Amino acid sequence: MKKAIYPGTFDPLTYGHIDILQRSLKIFDKITILLAKNTQKKTFFNLEERRSQIEDVLKEYQLDDRVDIDSFNGLLVDYCQQKEVQVIIRGLRPLVDFEYEFEMAMTNRGLNENVETVFIITDQKYFYLRSTLIKDILRLGGNVIDSVPQRICEDLIKKIQVNNE
């Protein structure tokens, strides 16, 4: 069985993330979405909220039988070694992500030469998608229904309304 992990904050999960996941499932039998517990990065949604959103989306897309969700805090390669996974999936937007992702892939390889990073180029209709941009558009009254699933859009709107009160 070919297994891989797809790490990130997914704050929120976007159609770009779903696209990378679906295309990765053409290559791998089982994928674990690995939610970062990055204490240096302040997330909009807490870990439990993000996990719940992703679980619902996986069910909606009928991917829940091939995709697990886990969380981690620490070195990604240590998680890979612990779970006996040798492939990290990363989505790559043109130009925007390359330098950072290349640096991370080389760092991970330096820490554990048995772990490979596979880059999946983002579909052109999602080149512009960034979680921060989605939240900014909503805060300013824009519509992001073409960027995130309905459930996540509703959660974003509720959270922004609560934060504005």
Domain tally:
1
Superfamily at the CATH H level? HUPs
CATH architecture classification: 3-Layer(aba) Sandwich
Strand tally: 5
Q: What string, H for helix and E for strand, traces the elements in order?
A: EHEHEHEHEHH
How many DSSP helices? 6
What is the compact description of this entry?
This protein has 165 residues and is α/β, with parallel strands linked by helices. 42% of the residues lie in helices and 19% in strands.
How would you describe what is shown here?
The protein is an alpha/beta fold and 165 residues long. It has a single domain, classed as Rossmann fold. 42% of the residues lie in helices and 19% in strands. It contains six helices and five strands. The strands form two sheets. A three-stranded parallel sheet has the order 1-2-3, sandwiched between helices. Strands 4-5 form a two-stranded parallel sheet. Helix 1 (15-24) links the parallel strand 1 and strand 2 (30-36). The chain is globular.
Key features?
two-stranded parallel sheet, Rossmann fold, alpha/beta, 165 residues, three-stranded parallel beta sheet
